[in-house]
Amino acid sequence: MIMIYFLFIIRSAFEDFYRNKLRTFLTSLGILIGVSSVVLLISLGLGLKAYIKQQFDSMGSNLIYIMPGNMSGGGMGGMMSEIRFDNKDVQTLTRVKNISAVVPFVIKYSKVQSKTESATYELAGSTMEALDLMNLEIEFGRPYTKADVEKGAKVVVLGPKAAEKLFGSSENALNKIVKLEGQGFKIVGIIKSKGGGGLGMPSIDDHVFMPHTAMVSFNPDKKFYAIYLKAESEDAIPQIITDAKKLLAKRYTNEDDFSVMEQTDILNTVNSIFNILNIVLVSIAAISLVVGGVGIMNIMFVSVIERIREIGIRRAIGAQKKDILWQFLAEAVLLSGIGGVMGLTISSLAVLALRTLLPAYIDLSTVLIALGVSSGVGIIFGVFPAKQAADLSPIEAIRYE
Fold this sequence. Notes:
The chain is of the alpha+beta class. It has helices at about 1-20, 20-60, 75-80, 85-95, 130-135, 145-150, 160-165, 170-175, 235-250, 265-305, 310-315, 320-355, 365-390, 395-400; strands at about 65-70, 100-115, 120-125, 140, 155-160, 175-180, 185-190, 205-210, 225-230, 260. It has a six-stranded mixed β-barrel. The chain is elongated and about 100 Å long.
């Protein structure tokens, strides 16, 4: 019986919507825009976090990162810090037990030129262990070797996208010469594609790898931006972090001069930053939901005024206050729900289109949030007009003109 009652109310609501199709659409438009904005931002946030996790996972396991500055306070410490590591720090860290590699990195953005093309790429100068440390495989040619590092040989290993941009294909790039900072470097290898990139973040496929000793002319102070340690086992990581901190603290007495972190620490720090940004952006987008809710409230008040005589007649023939209340509340919720479903549909199509360019996806929780929020807006902003309709005096309503 209750089911029949609510079906009757829903059918009556849709009949009213059908009589006022344009008004129904325009009223739902505010909710549509709000829901689609919120869903898109949540989807981009979820996709970005998944992408970052994938990038960290693809770099291998048991890695420990030593960065300049205090990275635990929001992730910007390394950029702001004046500290840069040098070969003395690398030699000091080789004394840490239970590690299989100490790999320093010099990072620099520079224009890379072939005979016909040029583009700006991230240069990563390091030792011969760098490619293995990052789980990078050579597709064509060879990696640079220990001898190349010792001699400061001007050789590079290109990512496949960089090779294709500069030479048309990866195979064509092998053994060719590129110019960096006016100097010629021979391409000795091309790595296999790792994918990734997007949202302004460079892909490994767009990197240029080389011996750090070959970068002396554009890294004259021979400083390193970061040092990576490879632990022999996961169980050894906590002790390695403790030992590395103790050794570096002898030289860098300020605890904010450097950070020693494992992958999960960095991932948590990055995720916390993006979570805050996502909350702020979603909150801004949610303002349009409030605007849409005010629109629903306004239209429902207008609907009450237009239907005062109808309300009076229904009350006169036996309808109770709760019946009128449910009728108008159902209309408000359905109006909001229609906007929510349309917004969810549009944002889902937009996410499918964006996935070719940006990391984004919609999960079940996003769908439930979208539908729940849109329904909630209908209830919150529909209850006042519904109560006004229910409180009308039947006699005064019938006499209303």
